[in-house]
Structure to design on (306 residues):
């Protein structure tokens, strides 16, 4: 708890400094209230993949004794992923920039992955049916307020908020993975960590494109450089173990089209958002998934893997 409070204080200081350095304050700026946020609907393909993953985590991984620390890690990570999703929903409503809606959808899946284990080990779900912006954890509740207020001041500040969230998530996940014993928990946290690294790459691309900078506050400078200088990560160990097909085609967070599987239609825009009426949706790093309806405006056709 002391570590979480310290993190909250450090993050608050960082974000206030970032706002002063990188943004021009707008006293009349307001954002949507939590009750005005529209939670992204989970597409059919994502729902199927989550159901398959939950079944795999129950069938392919043994039920192991769960330590108190591991139980706390699961419940905390469930709400920390919700924090990321809710902040990105807020920032998308504020700025209507696609990267926030894409990554919010990815965070929704991360929340579902953690929920699989919470249900497997019969723990109480701290997120429950709480609406966007509402948390049981008081530190996360305070962070939500700080992050949304800072991200509302400018698009640049919003991108920096995104990078900060992913920086913090990677650091927390690395510590939890190192301390965990249970195979299923380690597999899910590794899955979340891969997503957070890809999200950090996406936000850094946007930060660089507007001529701003971000220095890591939680992970080391060496790890930060290793992540941001390497390409988007594809696939996952968990998907390989579970035999889950994630859908048609993939594209990275900068819109680069990549070869994939199936009959994916449409193209990807500069932040990885799918354009057109094609099949599949794009995750937070631009990875096209599933057989749901196209996620984005514009036109785009063509059968075959991207």
């Amino acid at each position: 708890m002391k570590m979480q409070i310290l993190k909250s204080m450090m993050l608050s200081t960082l974000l206030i400094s970032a706002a002063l350095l990188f943004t021009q304050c707008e006293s009349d700026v307001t954002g949507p209230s939590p009750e005005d946020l529209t939670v992204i609907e989970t597409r059919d393909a994502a729902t199927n993949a989550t159901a398959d993953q939950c079944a795999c985590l129950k069938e392919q991984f043994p039920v192991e004794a769960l330590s108190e620390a591991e139980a706390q890690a699961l419940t905390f990570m469930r709400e920390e992923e919700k924090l990321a999703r809710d902040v990105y929903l807020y920032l998308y409503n504020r700025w209507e920039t696609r990267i926030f809606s894409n990554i919010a959808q990815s965070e929704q899946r991360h929340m579902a992955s953690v929920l699989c284990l919470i249900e497997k080990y019969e723990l109480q779900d701290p997120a429950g049916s709480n609406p966007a912006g509402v948390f049981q954890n008081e530190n996360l509740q305070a962070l939500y307020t700080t992050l949304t207020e800072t991200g509302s001041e400018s698009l640049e500040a919003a991108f920096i908020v995104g990078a900060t969230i992913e920086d913090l998530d990677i650091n927390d996940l690395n510590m939890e993975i190192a301390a965990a014993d249970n195979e299923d928990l380690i597999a899910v946290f590794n899955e979340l960590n891969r997503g957070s690294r890809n999200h950090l790459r996406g936000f850094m691309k946007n930060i660089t494109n507007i001529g701003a900078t971000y220095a890591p506050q939680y992970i080391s400078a060496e790890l930060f450089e290793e992540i941001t200088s390497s390409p988007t990560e594809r696939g996952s160990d968990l998907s390989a173990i579970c035999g889950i097909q994630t859908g048609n085609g993939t594209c990275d967070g900068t819109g680069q089209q990549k070869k994939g599987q199936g009959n994916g239609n449409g193209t990807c825009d500069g932040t990885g958002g799918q354009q057109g009426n094609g099949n599949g949706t794009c995750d937070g790093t631009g990875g096209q998934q599933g057989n749901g309806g196209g996620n984005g405006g514009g036109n785009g056709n063509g059968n075959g893997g991207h």
In short: Residues 68-95 form the longest helix (28 residues). The beta strands are 250-251, 257-258, 267-268, 274-275, 281-282, 288-289. The chain has a mean pLDDT of 75.
